[in-house]
Amino acid sequence: MMALLAGRLAWRQLVSSRARLVSAIAGVMFACVLVFMQLGFRAALFDSASNLPRALQGELFLVNPLTLVMFRPEPIARVRASQTLADADVAQAVPIYLAQAKFRNPETGKQRTIQLIGFDPEAGAVDFAGLRPLVPALKRIDTIGFDRRSRPEFGDIAGRLEQGGPFEVEVGGRAVVVVGLVSLGTSFGADGNAVMTETNFRRIVKERPASKTDLVAIRLKPGADAQAVQARLARLLPPDVMVLTGAELIAWERAYWESGTPIGFIFSFGSLMGLVVGMVIVYQILFSDIATHLREYATLKAIGYSNHYLRLVVMAAALMLAVLGFVPGFLGSIGLYGLVAKVTLLPLGMAADRAVTVFALIFVMCAVAGLLAMRKLGEADPADMF
Amino acid sequence: MRPVVVRPVELSGVSYTYEKGDRPVLREVALEIGPGEIVLLTGPSGSGKTTLLTLIGALRALQAGSCRVLEQDLAKADEAGRVALRRRIGFIFQQHNLLGFLTARQNVAMALEIDAGTAERDRMTRAGAMLAAVGLGDKTESLPGQLSGGQRQRVAVARALVGQPGLVLADEPTAALDRQSGQDVVRLLTDLARQRAVPILMVTHDPRILDIADRIVAMEDGRIVG
Q: Is B117 an 8 Å CB contact of chain A?
């Protein structure tokens, strides 16, 4: 009951000065949007980093233990793929070739690096949206499928395909025909993707010996225990490859970006800065509220209100600001996510767990600002009132 | 047998020295206020009147001497005990010190809200009645900024009295007011206090209001001189 009355007093004080309330809400909202954007970018980075591993259909994968990140793979011996077939539960082992090459924009002639993904499209170990109908066309010599979610700097490939059908582009210094579109998505490691058969991959990436591949997707027979097979393969194969499950492959790709690069730290730091700025704004508002009402606060102490009660009032005001600033900050961030996702083609969107996290952060931010501002209450000395 | 008279204020041997000060501002002060008695405290500035008022009002911790206010021994009281005692005292300051963002009625009700057990409707009714008693029945919903200086001080009087205090302490309540409204406020305060038999201890310099007192106590240099 006491807390309710203190809250009501805090509310009445907050709404009594509209200008101050608006600037306080704007401050919290600002911090909110900043943190949402930073955490959103961070999540988008990690999500997009795992675009490729998530599109792979295998239960198990072979990678070189020295590989740090998929856009810069260390090669593994192609023969390891065949060796896995020694296990009775392995149905299929599909080598996947990864490389980056220059793609010449057919409109401007400018070059940009694109991610090449080579594999046997009939094996079914890779399933990008739109791949199936392209398989016959991809089997022809010097053909590629283009990722429609690539960055626009590669040119309006989709538009040209729609208008004039398959057309020639230059990839890695070689003329190839774009025969269709798949959907995969950009990542921080790749601005765009092109898929092709092993043969066509090697015709573009000539320095690559056929005996070396980059990743092997293993499909198991129905009912096989992936973990048991993983353990058996790890014993069977030499230590120049490691055997990962699909989830481990995704986690391993994410881990590179999270801990192997300063990017994760940069976004955490950006979030922290947003919180600090927001806290300073809220602190300023609460502090000046107390400072300008010091006589009134001292009067309340004189007529019998405890320090504790007045602290409750300050804390209630801080937490009200947290809620009042979060709601528009949350809605604004949803809008901004849509906008930024459109521009950057990153998978940016609001997530419930992130909303909860940001609300908790904003709540703590306001509470800390309240605690700091409370110290000013000590100056309200009722003995000075006479 | 004569009934035992419990005096609202009984103090003796009270001395006080400020931390920074080198000499005491109060020296061996003794003062008693009887039930319903209206006492004026006068004296030159620096004579210790205000310090005495803050000690009796439990706004400062007692250093030396004995001081009983509303049957509470202040020598033994801690901060919580002093806060509890303050709730039973009505304070009136030189400035009205009303909360600018609350209406007159809400300001008066603040003195009742300390006891969270009271009902909101009850608090509002009592605050309204008290405002009517100080002649502001038509201003209950006004903000302090919309009232004149005299009206604000009358709201402060209502706030001091609405909790049915056992004692009213006032520090030059007319200081910020013009002559007429100052007199009106003090007369209103003393009339209401007499009706309710509430004792008042009032510091004042104002010679025009000396006639309202039952007793005038003069202080000089930390001592009561008459």
A: yes
Contacts of A4 in chain B (CB under 8 A): 116
Residue B107 sits at the vertex; the CA angle it makes with B105 and B108, to the nearest 5 degrees, is 65
Q: Coil, strand or helix: which one is B76? A: coil
Neighbours of B178 (CB within 10 A): 12
Across the interface, of A5, A295, A382, the residue whose CB is closest to B59 is A382
User: Quick one: which of A366, A101, A28, A90 has its CA closest to A217?
Assistant: A90
Confidence of residue B211 (pLDDT cuts 50, 70, 90): confident
Q: Which residues of B touch A303 (CB under 8 A)?
A: 86-87, 90-91, 110-111, 114, 159-160
Give the single-character DSSP code of B204: -
CB pairs under 8 A between A and B: 73
Q: Is B171 on the interface with A (CB under 8 A)?
A: yes
pLDDT, one tens digit per residue, over A240-249 is: 999 999 899 9
Chain A environment of B95 (Cβ under 8 Å): 295
Q: Just give the CATH number of B37-58+86-216.
A: 3.40.50.300
Phi/psi at A35 (nearest 5 deg)? -65, -40
Q: Is 60 exceeded by the pLDDT of residue B2?
A: no
A137 pLDDT band, cuts 50/70/90, is very high
Nearest to A215 by CA among A46, A77, A85: A77
pTM for this prediction: 0.76
Which whole number is the average pLDDT over B80-101?
90
The answer to whether residues A11 and A349 touch, using CB atoms and an 8 Å cutoff, is no
Alpha helices in B96-212 (DSSP H): 104-113, 120-133, 149-162, 179-196
